[in-house]
Amino acid sequence: MGTTANDLDAMTGTPDAATLARRYRDVRARTEALCDGLSSEDCVVQSMPDASPAKWHLGHTTWFFETFVLAAAVSDHVAFDPSFAVLFNSYYNAVGEQHPRPRRGMLTRPPLDRVRDYRRRTDDLVLGLLEGERLAEPDRAIVELGLHHEQQHQELLLMDLKHLFWCNPLAPAYRETGPAGGRATRLEWVRFDAGVHRIGHGGDGFSFDNERPRHRAFVEAFELASRVVTCGEWLEFLEDGGYERPELWLADGWAVAREAAWRAPAYWRRSDDGWTVFTLGGPREVHPDEPVCHVSHYEADAFARWAGARLPTEFEWETAAAELPVRGNLAADGALHPLVPRPGDGLRQMFGDVWEWTASAYLPYPGYRPAAGALGEYNGKFMANQIVLRGGSFATPSGHLRPTYRNFYYPRQRWMFSGVRLARDV
Amino acid sequence: MGTTANDLDAMTGTPDAATLARRYRDVRARTEALCDGLSSEDCVVQSMPDASPAKWHLGHTTWFFETFVLAAAVSDHVAFDPSFAVLFNSYYNAVGEQHPRPRRGMLTRPPLDRVRDYRRRTDDLVLGLLEGERLAEPDRAIVELGLHHEQQHQELLLMDLKHLFWCNPLAPAYRETGPAGGRATRLEWVRFDAGVHRIGHGGDGFSFDNERPRHRAFVEAFELASRVVTCGEWLEFLEDGGYERPELWLADGWAVAREAAWRAPAYWRRSDDGWTVFTLGGPREVHPDEPVCHVSHYEADAFARWAGARLPTEFEWETAAAELPVRGNLAADGALHPLVPRPGDGLRQMFGDVWEWTASAYLPYPGYRPAAGALGEYNGKFMANQIVLRGGSFATPSGHLRPTYRNFYYPRQRWMFSGVRLARDV
Amino acid sequence: MGTTANDLDAMTGTPDAATLARRYRDVRARTEALCDGLSSEDCVVQSMPDASPAKWHLGHTTWFFETFVLAAAVSDHVAFDPSFAVLFNSYYNAVGEQHPRPRRGMLTRPPLDRVRDYRRRTDDLVLGLLEGERLAEPDRAIVELGLHHEQQHQELLLMDLKHLFWCNPLAPAYRETGPAGGRATRLEWVRFDAGVHRIGHGGDGFSFDNERPRHRAFVEAFELASRVVTCGEWLEFLEDGGYERPELWLADGWAVAREAAWRAPAYWRRSDDGWTVFTLGGPREVHPDEPVCHVSHYEADAFARWAGARLPTEFEWETAAAELPVRGNLAADGALHPLVPRPGDGLRQMFGDVWEWTASAYLPYPGYRPAAGALGEYNGKFMANQIVLRGGSFATPSGHLRPTYRNFYYPRQRWMFSGVRLARDV
Amino acid sequence: MGTTANDLDAMTGTPDAATLARRYRDVRARTEALCDGLSSEDCVVQSMPDASPAKWHLGHTTWFFETFVLAAAVSDHVAFDPSFAVLFNSYYNAVGEQHPRPRRGMLTRPPLDRVRDYRRRTDDLVLGLLEGERLAEPDRAIVELGLHHEQQHQELLLMDLKHLFWCNPLAPAYRETGPAGGRATRLEWVRFDAGVHRIGHGGDGFSFDNERPRHRAFVEAFELASRVVTCGEWLEFLEDGGYERPELWLADGWAVAREAAWRAPAYWRRSDDGWTVFTLGGPREVHPDEPVCHVSHYEADAFARWAGARLPTEFEWETAAAELPVRGNLAADGALHPLVPRPGDGLRQMFGDVWEWTASAYLPYPGYRPAAGALGEYNGKFMANQIVLRGGSFATPSGHLRPTYRNFYYPRQRWMFSGVRLARDV
Q: Of B57, B211, C35, D379, which has the highest C-beta tally within 10 A?
């Protein structure tokens, strides 16, 4: 573990203990706040193998701190409950066995209250270490990693709850959300010249190992759309037979779309009066000016081909985003849904609203080395068959994003908050 | 509905309203008592498509009374919640759509408390009708059917909870159970002569339509074992390679056993110290003198072949049981597990302890006519691919059983409380 | 093997060697004649796991004689090719491993010509034994069994070829067949009284072990339809929504019908001009007076319910057929398709045309004992989940049938020549 | 079609008609020669959905010329057989329906001889056009494409036959092959400096659309192994627990390896005396100095991680190969198996022996545009979920390869002739 910590430390500039303690309180409290208003029943059920119960998210993020901080830094640490080592381990083979992912919904015990106790006791211990200045620099880096990890699970928690409520014919709302409104601006194209660019995270501050090392990439000239694709544009695609024309689709995408009988984005349903969309605020009419959300990579790719464009590579996206401020419709705004972009010039919505599918496979950067030890399993072993998404969504905590941030999903998945920004050759 | 009720009525002798009201209170209270000590989390999760959440059982049994009694008998009945018509309909196509069985575990809403309200309100209305003598004879017959239906779900509830807790690595206990104890008596053979027998239910008193009509069947001479097969006998089978010798198995059974990697009854696990069994009281050592439980028809059949015997037909079983008192280790005893038989002569354990697999396919009796209307779907449409079991288990409510009672499961299923009684030709 | 033979012997009265030799020549030649006009390509391909290539049928039926006659009776018998012991063993665990059934179509080697050599050499040896009177009575019984076995494969061969050609968009014809013609007689009901009947094979002459022992069964009074169901009657069912009304179906049947999207019998296809049926003579219009063929048990059962009738039990069928001559549209007639029944009184088409689904599960008769040794695997281990069919089809060799003959298939299967005769309660 | 041809034409410099006619004769004859010694049975069977029967390869490659050359260039062309338009269309939606890929093995008709007639007649017509100088430049480009297409199928034909024979317990040999021999040279590392490189095909001469356009890519400094990985090195990996250590594997690869129970490369089998490998010459001992073959991308990646190295990107590979002569153990050598490399300095075996897995996802190059019309389906729609392989194998026709050639397969596939060359960071 020491090596891992050293390793992480060398690459970042970890905040001091007091800053870290403050952030720890904030992030941990935010996770709990996301569960306000949920019943223990809402928190225990798993709606599909890809999703996890809210209770499991609460336990797993705590397990991360207990396993990688407390057990590593405190020689006589006593586990809150030895069985949690297996129950709440997600996929870290190096620290032992895991309760199988598709069976996370079987855990009616431990009860939710006991997982909350687990959180409290772990928080006391971690904060004790931080506030007592008893945590050396390498372990502080792991606390910081744990907070970013927990922020990822905050977004997952919303994805998973939305899916759970969608599976319920009662179509319950998670929270009240504002009405849809506004008019989308005209889509414009922003041009970028060819050249060798620096890609990836190189400076101070936190980043995941998959953003490193910073390296050179040649990017040919390209143009990027000024905003993301709207529901209205998607309806045109749909009405133009977008889901029935194989020539628009990648062969694998076409096979999936046929098998799954896709006719529209996930969470859309056709009623007598037109299309409705299920949101975290319950079902409502599809608003044509809002960003389209919950589309797979295959759909995004087919849409782009239909539109005479293509998806941007992650290098193009990062080139365009490198100098932009990380602002937008993020979790702190509480919109809980993508919004119609505000008027303005240049690139809009690069951060927040919806994750933007790129054309890039999720692969290691040249010179990539996963962290040593168990934390090396965090990212590296997933570098196969997945596609990079960039820019965050309305559910992404603000402090969590960076222009170099690489999210990744399988091209057929649709339950994350994924949308489309077009690119084209010059 | 009238027809249905007339139909039912003609075949039974329905108790008077006061008797029915008393039984209604008892049965409904017993269902709730089974949930004492369970958390709402325990009640919402579905552990496999065959099983249902406890909350769903609570709702569905209530839906039965609301749909087939209140809505049928009260012209201005207002539904407690119109959505429940779909959520809690199990498989009655004639009364509308059903929430899909494998997705019963998605229903974190309505919350458990609301389902309890649903029970209370329905109970008030049904009891009001009964106690006000406002329920005509045909509808009273449906109340009685509803109570037997609810008693079936009481046993299902225990089966499903046991499976859920088994899926949890913490292996929680449902209730405290007594220690295993006693010595099984020697297995003896009881002989029955050939002849034409009357099979099925013909007299007064309640019976399901699948027990009717009473008809004649020729039964050749046979012998029946005096008690059910014990765990010790099963261990001999197992140690003699019972699970590795295809010549002992039906071809379909062998295929299932290979695919599912069966090595022992369900809920058995091999530890360093021998075999343990998971019970409603948690895991404990296998007790050799206890009845074996949770075996499939395929295993029961293979065991019988290994033992130089066979399974009894349901006609043989009924012939033997016809005149016996319906007594044994049933739900009211609270053992929550099959018990070592008490010493004694003749047939033991014919009722209670474990359901006994027969050699008979679950098929209609000659002249069988399902009830008219929706209640005709209760039994008849399942008369394919299933096998009859007889005699009830430790989880069967006592007032619920009869010698003519036909239970039925697929030959590969093992989560019910199923055991084996041997038979042989003379 | 000796035991087996003794066993078989005791139950039959095996023909003398000369008779047997003559029948051997006939049956073996008939198998080869069925392959006339087929290319080696036609003979090697397997169209689905249930079906086998013609070449495999040619080899397997020969393997049966080599394994159970030559290797058993001739102490120094040298195998034609040791690899054939595995390649052509269907499912007899007691004589060794089997090439997996779903991979029978992988065997481009041995070439068809070599399998023909295998037949010739085996025929020479078996006939040598028979004609030299060097085969003792027990082994002669196995020769007879082998001939009946081969006759079963003659029908399978036609079923499998039909399916193969159906899978080919060119829709090739196996043989030229005559035109459909004639008018079906009115369906009448023939009544049978209640009573104890003798069921099963008891006399001299060959029978399979599953027809034995002859035993008593009580059969309530019933009526049987005078002929089988026609395509025209099936079209009425179909046009009355037969495939869209769950109340007509067994629950398992409905699930299969939905999943497989059944809309008509197998081999039917709707064209602009109505329904066509694929026959061994190629595609042609559905003829309304012909017997319907290639329906599953589930469809047969749903049809019967729609018609206000039911399927007969196998005991009812045998009671009705017991004294009838075994005559009808059988393989020797060469029609290769079910025919419109000739006018006449009483039960028609009890033998030939189409196998008739019964309501009976395929289960052992009281006192059933499979033959000892490997041949005990012939029938007994399949007594689970299957349904009895009676009466033979246009593809059944005439000498092969008896009133006690029990054929069996899974209720969802449709590639055999299966049809429907109705029954009803009195 | 005209557009397509123009398009292709613009990018290549098509050979004159006489040259093309000569190459046409050569390539077409080579395909037939590959089938020498095969029976019509060998040519009709499909061993798995990924593979096609030899007869289908013979028909499909001919269909390509008939569809894209004859039907396009000859206004009154009469199809040889209209049904072939569907039977032999692989995946070109733009020219109509396709017989489903997994059912190519059902086509016992048309017989092999008729497909050979189809080839002869098509050859006569195409050669007539070429030799009569009646084929304009754009259509000549399609003839050239058709020849490269046919060469790809020559390699597929060997892959598919090998798999078919492997599925046969008789383990037949396709052809006699020479003995394995020689000693592998020591693995050395060859260094390449960082810089912007030109990648893709830009000059004259044929290339597929996926190799275009030639574009710039920045490649960081790297080292490449002087030869491919040997069976001996793979045995070390295997004996060091390579197939049992999840930390060596990508998560998706580990899941596949567990599910498929991989313990060694495809076609390896452990016997009492060690490992044997099934080759086109039949089974023989694994030779430690030969290149390892038939490994998936997942295995290649795990091996590289175990070896402290990684797979090269396709840009690295092309950078290294750009100036090398296209020489090696290719199809013309007739070895039918990868060979021990000859001694020598620098990079060995870059062409021939085994296809080399890269670390690169198969994605479009910047500015990629598929050909217009149906031929645009040739490559572009497969740019998802696949991995690039480079360098050709012992089964690749020599004239068919280029340094810019991109082959592609799914990371779990193993039936192609795929091996591993290591790379590492500097």
A: B57
Continuous segment of H or E residues that includes residue C224: strand C222-225
The rounded radius of gyration (Å) of the Cα atoms in chain D is 22
Rounded to the nearest 10 degrees, the angle between the axes of helix A112-131 and helix A137-166 is 160
How near does any CA of chain C get to the CA of B246, in Å?
Answer: 7
Alpha-carbon Rg for chain C, nearest whole angstrom, is 22
Specify whether the backbone of D32 is left (phi greater than 0), alpha (psi in -120 to 50) or beta: alpha
- The partner residues of D191 in beta bridges, in order of sequence, read D223
CB contact under 8 A, A411 and D384: yes
| Helix (H) / strand (E) containing A390 | strand A387-390
Residue of chain A with shortest Cα separation from B42: A108
Q: What is the pTM of this model?
A: 0.95
B288-324 burial, b for 16+ CB within 10 Å, e for fewer?
bbbbbbbbbbbbbbbbbbbbebbbbbbbbbbbbbeee
Q: Do C411 and B385 touch (CB under 8 A)?
A: yes
- In chain B, residues with a C-beta closer than 8 Å to the C-beta of A99 are 169
Closest alpha carbon to D408 in D332, D297, D321: D297
Work out the minimum CA distance from C307 to partner chain B, whole angstroms: 15
Give me the residue label for tokens 């995946």.
D91
Chain A residue numbers with beta carbons less than 8 Å from the beta carbon of B173 are none
- A300 CB contacts (<8 Å, ≥6 apart)? A311, A357, A418, A419, A420
Residues of chain B found within 8 Å of residue A110, distances taken between Cβ atoms: 170
Cα gap A39→B40, rounded to integer Å: 9
DSSP string of A26-79, one letter each residue: HHHHHHHHHTTT--HHHHH---STT---HHHHHHHHHHHHIIIIIHHH-TT---
Joined together, the tokens standing for residue A1 give 């573990």
D108 at C interface, C-beta within 8 A: yes
pLDDT of C7 over the 80 cut? no
- The alpha carbon of C171 is separated from its chain's Cα centroid by a whole number of angstroms, namely 24
Report d(CA B265, CA B229) in Å as an integer.
13
**Amino acid in the structure at residue B190:** V
Consecutive H or E run containing A112:
helix A112-131
**Rg of chain B on CA atoms, in Å:** 22
Q: Do chains C and A touch (3 or more CB pairs under 8 A)?
A: no
* Calpha distance A66→A31 (Å, rounded): 17
- All residues of chain B having their beta carbon less than 8 Å from the beta carbon of residue C377 are 247
Q: What share of chain A is helix, strand, coil (3-state, %, to 5)?
A: 40, 15, 45
- CB–CB contact D108 C42 (8 Å): yes
**D 181-210 residues with CB < 8 A to A:** 194, 196
Q: What is the ipTM of this complex?
A: 0.95
Element containing residue A23 per DSSP (H, E): helix A17-34
Contact of D206 with D399, CB cutoff 8 Å: no
Q: What is the pLDDT of residues D362-381, one digit of tens each?
A: 999 999 999 888 999 999 99
Tens of pLDDT, residues C170-196: 999 999 998 878 888 899 999 999 999
Q: Which of residues 238-277 of D touch A (CB under 8 A)?
A: 246-247, 249-254
d(C-alpha D24, C-alpha D19), whole Å: 8
Question: What does the pLDDT look like over C41-57, one tens digit per residue?
Answer: 999 999 999 999 999 99
Taking contacts as CB-CB distances below 8 angstroms, the residues of chain B near C246 are 93
Question: pLDDT-based confidence at D419, cuts 50/70/90?
Answer: very high
Say how far apart CA C129 and CA C142 lie, in whole Å: 13
Residue D12: pLDDT over 60: no
Q: Does B19 touch chain A (CB under 8 A)?
A: no
- Which of D38, D81, D108 is best to mutate for the C interface (most C CBs within 10 A)? D108
